[in-house]
Amino acid sequence: MDTSASEGHKRDKDGFYWSDDAEPHLERRKEILKKYPQVRDLYGVDPSLKYKVFGLVLIQMISAYFAPNLHWSLFLVASYVLGATISHALFLAIHELSHHLAFKKRAHNNWLAIFANIPMIFPYAMSFKTYHLMHHAEQGDEHHDADLPHPVEAGFFKGLWGKLVWAFNQILCYIIRPLFVHPLKMKKWHFINMAFQFPVIAVFIYFAGWQALLYLAVSVFFAGSLHPLAGHFISEHYVFEEGQETYSYYGPLNKLSFNVGFHNEHHDFPRIPGSRLPKLKKLAPEYYDDLYAHSSWTRVLYKFITNSDISLHSRVRRKSSQNRK
């Protein structure tokens, strides 16, 4: 392995970064809590989250109902500007709910996530929860972190055009990849998610029609494609500054994404809802101000596609034995 990368991150012949250390967030959490024990006051639920979820689902479903009346060009514009933005916001609402940040009871959070899943068509909320909590617990684990690009995936989508095709279709890669990285063992809530979603979508098709369903599908696709909000998928853990594994973004798009841009802060303290992560950064600035942060998710997409030094291999990986509890 090439040892040119800093702070213990070594690159293999394919370009993946490898670390012999555990993921960085647990240790930083311990340090911050020791110095600022009042951070625990930020833990808990966000009472407004449930109202935001209901509002987003309602707007998206009403928009889909009327979308078939639009000319095809306006249909596409509406699905990109409005539909994809709401879909992505719902992605990130489900992300918040996977950490049980709307209600004290886990079951209540699960039910709200299943409700938020409705405009996504496919029942993914509970599967996402499983994989996402695994991503937190085993960040960079080559066999358990499904957020890492598969080596075959990284080897296939190379160069400017390869990365452009991948970025355009990244939502499909995120859907397919876990099947190869770590196939899911279905449990009760996964079946509940499916048992709820499919009848609801069937009823929606009956009353609104297939073109309304198409609006939802195109919105979901655009939400995980070349959309400004989709830049956060790449911004969070792709190595843009050697030696750093997780990256934050503090720009205005956080207002549409439940502050997911505060990503170092989120990984350090997943029990703090997004609405209070800015308070964490303000409380412990010396732990975050010196870290490299992105200024634009759109620029992240552009740089990822056009910069030959950044690719799907630009992720920190670690052997399973290094990150197992």
TrEMBL record:
One of its GO terms (cellular component) is membrane. This is sphingolipid 4-desaturase. PANTHER family: SPHINGOLIPID DELTA 4 DESATURASE/C-4 HYDROXYLASE PROTEIN DES2 (PTHR12879), SPHINGOLIPID DELTA(4)-DESATURASE DES1 (PTHR12879:SF8). The chain crosses the membrane at residues 73-95, 107-126, 160-177, 213-234. GO terms for molecular function: sphingolipid delta-4 desaturase activity. Its EC number is 1.14.19.17. It comes from Gracilimonas sediminicola. InterPro entries: DES1/DES2, FA_desaturase_dom, Sphingolipid_d4-desaturase_N. It is found in: Membrane. It is an enzyme of class 1 (oxidoreductase). GO terms for biological process: ceramide biosynthetic process. It holds the Pfam family Lipid_DES.
